[in-house]
């Protein structure tokens, strides 16, 4: 059976991709710095930032899904001043380059690269790193696909939790459609095996809501007594922060339901 190598398979999106691949009967190898516990996939230890283990991981691979990234903001769940100045590129740029050149050498048939909607207008250094990774994929002699997704609910949840201590939350009024990783995983797995190539339909969440509405639903789900201060920002500034609305495929899970799953059980247990 054809073998699929997944990078980032221990991450938020990656775990959902593994779930879909296994459910659909694919043979899966996960490239990871620390192997996980699932016994229904193969684990290949290695590091994209150094290239250790990558050649062995690519042996006999037909399709690569590249969902690895190093995003300091996603990792810590909050923005720090340093994020406006730099973002490490070792995984998303140099790691992608290694994956592509070794993939070519080892006759991989298709590489699907996961990326983010609206990178051209976004101003954070992480966006520039992601854009540089995409450019390498487009320039590759391999058959490639790029799937861009809107920000994930888990990230919005952690960013909003960083505001929770404030009595008043300043929030832009911008429209936005974040998405759940389960919906992105479905789309990614479809695009990996449907025979299509190139820039694939981007994916966002089912609803276009203002950030004020998203923050209000979050506050209510957590039963916090806070005021939201709507801030009008220019379209350019909003796009610079990555607050856009996607124009492609829509996921199914809405923010309110995601919040219910995330916080209802916590509140019932309390
Ligand atoms: N988060 C969002 O809102 C969002 C939105 C749109 C698109 N995306 C894209 O979706 C993809 C997945 O994002 P995510 O939020 O699910 O990421 P995540 O949860 O931060 O997971 C990142 C994955 O990359 C792996 N990784 C990091 N450094 C590595 C290295 N040196 N070598 C090998 N693997 C390494 C991590 O492995 P460890 O377990 O070892 O750390 C983890 O499995 C990325 O391409 C991201 O740009 C994310």
Architecture overview:
This protein has a single domain, classed as NAD(P)-binding Rossmann-like Domain (Rossmann fold), CATH 3.40.50. Helix content is 40%, strand content 20%. Helix 5 links the parallel strand 5 and strand 6. The longest helix has 16 residues. The relative contact order is 0.13. The mean pLDDT is 95. The chain binds NADP nicotinamide-adenine-dinucleotide phosphate.
Give a short synopsis of this structure.
With 270 residues, the chain is α/β, with parallel strands linked by helices. The chain is built from ten helices and 13 strands.
Major β-sheet, in short?
Answer: 7 strands, parallel
Bound molecule kinds, no repeats: NADP nicotinamide-adenine-dinucleotide phosphate
The total beta strand count reads: 13
Beta-strand level of the residues, as a percent range?
Answer: 15-25%
| Domain tally | 1
Strand order of the largest sheet: 3-2-1-4-5-6-9
Taking pLDDT < 50 over at least 5 consecutive residues as the criterion, the unreliable ranges are: none
Count of alpha/pi helices: 10
The CATH fourth-level homologous superfamily: NAD(P)-binding Rossmann-like Domain
* Helical coverage, percent range: 25-40%
Assign the structural class, choosing from mainly alpha, mainly beta, alpha/beta, alpha+beta, or little secondary structure: alpha/beta
The rounded Rg comes to: 19 Å
Q: Judging from the principal axes of the Cα atoms, what is the shape?
A: globular
């Amino acid at each position: 059976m054809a073998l699929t190598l997944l990078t980032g398979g221990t991450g938020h999106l990656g775990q959902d991709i593994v779930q879909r691949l296994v459910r659909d009967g694919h043979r899966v190898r996960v490239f990871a710095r620390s192997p996980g516990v699932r016994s229904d996939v193969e684990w290949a230890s290695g590091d994209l930032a150094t290239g250790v283990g990558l050649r062995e991981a690519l042996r006999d691979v037909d399709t690569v899904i590249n969902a690895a990234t190093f995003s300091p903001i996603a990792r810590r769940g909050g923005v720090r001043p340093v994020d406006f100045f730099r973002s490490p590129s070792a995984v998303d740029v140099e790691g992608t380059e290694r994956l592509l050149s070794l993939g070519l050498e080892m006759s991989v048939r298709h590489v699907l690269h996961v990326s983010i909607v609206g990178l051209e207008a976004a101003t954070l250094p992480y966006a520039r790193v992601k854009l540089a990774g995409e450019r390498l994929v487009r320039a590759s002699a391999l058959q490639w696909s790029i799937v861009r997704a809107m920000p994930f609910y888990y990230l919005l949840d952690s960013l909003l939790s960083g505001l929770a201590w404030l009595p008043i939350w300043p929030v832009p009024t911008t429209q936005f459609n974040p998405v759940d990783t389960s919906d992105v995983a479905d789309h990614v797995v479809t695009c990996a095996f449907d025979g299509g190539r190139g820039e694939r339909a981007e994916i966002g969440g089912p609803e276009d809501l203002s950030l004020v509405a998203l923050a209000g639903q979050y506050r209510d789900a957590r039963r916090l007594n806070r005021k939201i201060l709507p801030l009008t920002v220019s379209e350019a500034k909003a796009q610079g922060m990555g607050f856009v609305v996607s124009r492609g495929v829509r996921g199914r899970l809405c923010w309110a339901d995601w919040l219910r799953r995330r916080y209802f059980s916590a509140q019932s247990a309390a």
